[in-house]
Amino acid sequence: MWGAEMGANQAGVVIGNEAVWNRLSNSSNDLISRLLGMDLLRLGLERGNSAKEALEVITSLLEQFGQGGQCSDIIQDFSYHNSFLIADQGEAWVLETADRLWAAERVESGCRNISNCLSIGTKVDMCSKGLKEMARDKGWWDGREPFHWAEVLGGGACGELESPDSRWRCGKNLLEEGAREGRFLVEDMMKVLRDENSGINRPGGEFPTAGSQVSTLGSERARAAHWLTATMAPSRSVFKPFIFCGTNTTTGLTESPRGADLAPGERRHGLWEAVDGG
């Protein structure tokens, strides 16, 4: 597995990824090696100079090659479909997928988050060709009621997680609460990502939080800036700043041990070992 569930590029595009399950989720099909969500995210950042371009890169690759494969090097036979939050300084999109089908919502106001459930409703600004016709032909949608992506494609599937929509609701509430006075700072976003009661920050268990990222999207006068933990459990991690420029350097202190033969526990960063007393 190569890649991450979030990232940014030099053009100021940022993308985050979440696992989702839906009526088309099928482990025997989904475990066939295709493109993982992390692959799609990385390729969107490599080829997209704007949020819209990145969305188009991801959806075209999804339609051509499909998604699938082993999604964990800890849990065997673990697979899922993907959702993405894609933004630049000019616009933001939520993209959600079900096998090779997809729907996208342009975010035009307020707060928007994604989690482990389909969350796009009737505001479908872009979608895969023939989506509504297929849904009607298969009896998922009657063709009369407004097309509601999450209800039509969700099918009540929850995958491997318990109450996957609860984290989405909690995240939405935390964002709205933090922005209540009309401003939302980097520190406020870090606080949301460190919240354990909501399940957004999972410091342990089978599905620990692998890393966290906060980004400001910049302006004509200021570069985009990114703060990344690059370590587990944001409540016990330091958000480290990064700005794309011509003189970027990193040190070995920011990297975890490398090696294809290393077990997951052997790849943990030295600071994490120090916290655990290892």
Structural overview:
The protein is α+β, with helices and mostly antiparallel strands and 278 residues long. Helices cover 26% and strands 16% of the residues. The protein has eight helices and nine strands. Strand 4 (92-98) and strand 5 (101-107) form a beta hairpin. It starts with 5 loop residues before the first strand and ends with a helix. The model has no long low-confidence stretch (mean pLDDT 91).
Order of helices and strands: EEHHHEEEEHHHHEEEH
- Principal-axes geometry comes out as globular
Strand order of the largest sheet: 1-2-3-4-5-6
Count the strands? Answer: 9
**Count, helices:** 8
Strand % is 15-25%
> What does the main sheet amount to?
6 strands, antiparallel
C-alpha end-to-end distance: 26 Å
Chain-wise SSE layout:
Layout: E1 6-8, E2 14-20, H1 27-30, H2 37-47, H3 51-65, E3 81-87, E4 92-98, E5 101-107, E6 126-127, H4 131-137, H5 149-154, H6 164-178, H7 186-193, E7 213-216, E8 225-228, E9 240-242, H8 270-276
Antiparallel strand pairs: 1-2, 2-3, 3-4, 4-5, 5-6, 7-8, 8-9
What's the gist of this structure?
The chain is an alpha+beta fold.
Quickly list its features:
single chain; 278 residues; alpha+beta; six-stranded antiparallel sheet; three-stranded antiparallel sheet; 8 helices; 9 strands; 26% helix; 16% strand
